[in-house]
Each structure stands twice: as C-alpha cells, then as structure tokens.
Amino acid sequence: MSIAIVQFGGSNCDLDVLHVLKDVVGVDAELVWYKEENLDRFDGIVIPGGFSYGDYLRAGAIAARTPIMNSVKKQAEAGKPVIGICNGFQVLTESGLLDGALTTNNYPKFRCESTFLRVETTDTPFTSAFRKGDILSIPIAHMEGNFYADEPTLARMEDNSQVAFRYVDKNGKVTDEVNPNGSQENIAGIVSTQKNVLGMMPHPERASEDVLGSSDGLKIFKSMAEYISGR
Amino acid sequence: MQYQADVTIELKAGMLDPEGTTIKRALEHLGYETDSVRTAKKYTITLEAESIHDARENVEEMCQKLIANPIIHNYAISLRETE
User: Fold this and answer.
1) Which of B72, B73, B74, B75 is most worth mutating to test chain A (most A CB atoms within 10 A of its CB)?
2) Chain A residues 52-111 with a CB less than 8 Å from chain B
3) Any idea which residues of A carry the catalytic annotation?
4) Which residues of A122-156 are buried (b: 16+ CB within 10 A; e: fewer)?
5) How buried is residue A49: exposed, middle or buried, by Cβ count under 10 Å (0-12/13-18/19+)?
6) In terms of one coarse class, where is the protein primarily found (chain B) (predicted)?
7) What is the domain extent for residue B57?
8) Which residues in chain A are contacts of B68 at CB distance < 8 A?
9) How many domains does chain A contain in total?
10) Could you say which of B22, B65, B72 has the minimum Cβ distance to residue A103?
C-alpha cells in the first residue's frame, strides 16, 4: 500500500502528514510534486494543508487547476480514497470534486484553536473506525473555512449522509457559539456522493499522537489505511 | 487587435461579506453612516484577439474556468480596444 501526499508551492502540512502515515500509522507514503501526471501507483491520496500559491485569487483556486489534479480526479473516480485537509479541502471544492465552496470566516480572522467535532456518519472510508456521534478534539487553523452551499445542495448532502463532521461543544451539541467560521449548519467536513473523497477544515494530523494533546485524528488515517487494505 | 478587459468579481447578493462589514464598521468609527459596504476584486487583463467578440468569449471562459467561483460569485466584464 502506498499513499501519495500532494505538494504544491505553499503546502506546509505535507511533512506532518508524511510523519503520521509512516511513523504512526505505519504505512508507506510518498510526497508527490504537483507536476506529476500519473498517480496510478498509489492506493490513496492526501492533499495537505498550507497556503498553495499564496491563496492568491481564492484559497485553493490555483492548485485546483494544476496537472496533478486531473490525476487526482481520475483516482477518485476509480474509487480510491482522497482526503483534503484545510487548504486541501479548499482545493477539492475548487476542483469540483466536492460540493460547495469555502469563503472567509464570518468574523474575518485567522483562527487557530482546538475544536470539538461530532462524527456524523461512519459510512465513509475515513470514519469507519468511529461510532456515530463520537466527539473528537481536533484543531483548526484557517481564515477561509466558512463552508457554503446552496439550499438544494445542502439538502441533497444531508439526504445522502455526506456531512462527515460538524463543529459542536464538548457535549456534542451544535451551537452558533462553537461554530468557528460561520459554516452552514456547523459543517466541518464533507464527503463526495460516492463517499471516497473527504474534505475537512480541522487538521487530524495535528491530533494524531498523545504528545500533541489529542490523538483523535489518528483514526481517520487508520480508517483510510484499513479501507485500502480491504479493497 | 489588443483589448483590455476589466473583470470585476463580487460575492453574490445575500452572501456574507465580512471584509465589507468590517469596512462599514470602520467608517462608522470615523463618523460616516452607510447602508452597506460590499467588496469586489478587479482584474485587468490585456489580450490579443481577432475581434471584440472573440476577446469577450475568451475572457468569459477565463472567468468560468478560474477567475470566478460560480457557486459564490457574480462577475462582470468590461472590454475596450487599446490599439
């Protein structure tokens, strides 16, 4: 099994993800530069956080139009698991692999803090190791994490169980006070219609070892690895 | 022929514009009352094209493929010949 970690100019969480996959989960992983056009040899893909191309134009917009994204689309269509974290989530919405868009936080401030997430569905390659309703502590670090989709899209996503995580309080309650960016319905992460593409604003790689204060994010990578093993 | 396109990108009506809201608040601190402040971005693109029609089609495509995100943005193109 080998997982590709896509690097754009400005990616900065790539090495953290590499460390978690190789040293903590114990799977093979490789950094892949954005000019690569063939990802057939990989079983899964991670688009890490950062500020690809300086977030010029819009966060993720330029990265979404690079050559590697055509191959990411091809692998996603083949059913391989693809996860985009933070800037990676922005890249996935910009490239049309995920619904909606991410815009400036409702209070226009870069927010870097610990958040609680509720697992909304376990029917994805990334959340199968959880129980529905589990509360996770995973940090965010973003300026443009306000998820927006029009009402019909939101309704369809809801019907199809495409909301993976919501921001909640420590007891699992959805409130405006714990919504860090104004995301519609406190959405923190979503999956594609086929469920094999996940985008999330919080950083599970920053919560994958006890020494970091939380290891709640580790199960996301472990679920992904187990899904690949079972394919 | 050379053309200049001024492309204006703005958030769709009804979408929150936190930057505009912050500017509105700053104006209030200076003693100015406004009903609302909305932000927009302008890109100036110069390009060669056979006709103004071709230039428009070209810039229209640029907006749809990259410059605007149709989920959240409206855009307007203003074109003129520069030589």
Assistant:
1) B72
2) 57-58, 61-62, 65, 94, 100-101, 103-108
3) 86, 203, 205
4) bebbbbbbbeeebebbbbbbbbbbbbbbeeeebee
5) buried
6) cytoplasm
7) 2-82
8) none
9) 1
10) B72
From B79's Cα to the closest Cα of chain A, the distance in A is: 21
End-to-end CA distance of chain A: 11
Q: Which of A52, A56, A58, A181 to mutate to test the interface with B (most CBs of B within 10 A)?
A: A58
- Position A108 confidence tier, pLDDT thresholds 50, 70, 90: confident
Domains in chain B: how many in total?
Answer: 1
CB contact under 8 A, A182 and B65: no
Domain residues for A184?
2-230
Q: Is residue B83 pLDDT above 80, yes or no?
A: no
Q: What is the CATH number of the domain that holds A145?
A: 3.40.50.880
ipTM score of the complex? 0.83
Q: What's the pLDDT tens digit per position in A167-185?
A: 999 999 999 999 999 999 9
**For A109-129, what is each residue's pLDDT tens digit?**
899 999 999 999 999 999 999
DSSP codes, B7-75: EEEEEPTTS--HHHHHHHHHHHHTT---S----EEEEEEEEE-SSHHHHHHHHHHHIIIII--TTTEEE
Q: Give the residue carrying structure tokens 């919080």.
A: A202
Q: Does B76 touch chain A (CB under 8 A)?
A: no
